[in-house]
Structure formats: structure tokens, C-alpha cells
Amino acid sequence: MARLWSEDRVTFEGKHYRYVDAAISPRPVQQPLPLWIGGSSEAAIRRTARVGTGWLAGLQTPAQVAPIVRAIREKAAEYGRAIDDDHYGAGFSYRFGSAEDPAVQRQLAALARLPGVADPAGLVVAGSADDIARRIEEFIAAGISKFVVRPIASDDADLMDQTMRMLEEVVPRFATARPAAAGPRA
What per-residue string of b and e applies to 24-63 under the rule 16 or more CB within 10 Å gives b? Predict the structure, then answer.
């Protein structure tokens, strides 16, 4: 993909795929285009370490993410590379309110139906701004610096309210935060 994003024509022959004079158009304006990779398998860790410029977790808790971030960093070092400390991401769903709110219960039920999700409650934060900020701090301690936060809402107005509360009550707490692995500020 990285070659297709930057070259006119690409020929490639690998174990599973073969391309002759492949092209895409239009190509990205940003060069090089960052290549964020997801997945937590050994293959995904190797792929991220070998060619990625960032990593984005799936539906995982901070405790599940921490060993993957460590493994990517270690494997990247083996390849003679490093991924910027601020290029590790994770996401979670949140709601200012209670875990008993119907919207949260619907979200938990939907998550419970997904394969591999043992504890849907660990993927959702329902509570106060302090509770949501605490989850972000847990992810930061696990090596995460980029976030995909998904408001849990019952309708469009509620979605806007949840989003505005995140922007007003939580985001300012982290406006000057840096990844834990980045070290002290100068």
C-alpha cells in the first residue's frame, strides 16, 4: 500500500499476492502517508513493527493494550525501527450518566454479541467526567496517546450533549498531556 500511495506503477510478487503495474488514483497528497495498523495477533505486532507508523487497538481495555504496545516497541527495535510514542491509539465508548442508562445497556448488549468480547463492561465507561478521565489515564499509562472516543447516546440531541460534555469537561484536562513513554517535558 505504501508504494501504491507514492509510486505511479507498482509490481509486486509475494507469497500470497502478485501485482503487475498496479496503480491507484488519485494518490494521497500527504507523503509519506502514515500507515496505522490494527490487530493484536503476533502477525499484527510484527507487521506494525516492520512497516507501521502507528497502531490502533481494537475493542480492548488498557490492561489488554499495554502488553501489545510493549511487544510492538520491542519488535520494532529488533527491526532497527521505532514508532513514535504518540502513534499508539485506542478507543472506548463513554456516557456521562449511569451504567444503568438504557443507552448504555443497549451498547453493552451489542458488545456482548461480538466474538471474543468476554467483559463488555470493561469496554465502556459510564459515569462522571472523573470516571472518563480515569479511563484515559489508564490508557495513557498503557502507552496510548491517541483516542477514538465514542459517545453512547439515545438520539441526536443526546449525542451532541455527550460530545459537548466530553469537549468541555474531559478534553481540557489532557490538553498538554504527553505520552508516558515520551519522558519529561523540556
Answer: eeeeeeeeeeeebbeebeeebbbbbbeebbbbbbbbbbbe
- DSSP string spanning 54-83? EEE--S--HHHHHHHHHHHHHHHHHTT---
pTM of the model: 0.85
The mean pLDDT value for 159-171 works out to 98
Q: What pairs with residue 91 in β-bridges?
A: 148
For residue 86, what is the enclosing H or E element? none
Beta bridge partners of 147: 90
Give the tens place of pLDDT for each residue, 53-107.
999 999 999 999 999 999 999 999 999 999 999 999 999 999 999 999 999 999 9
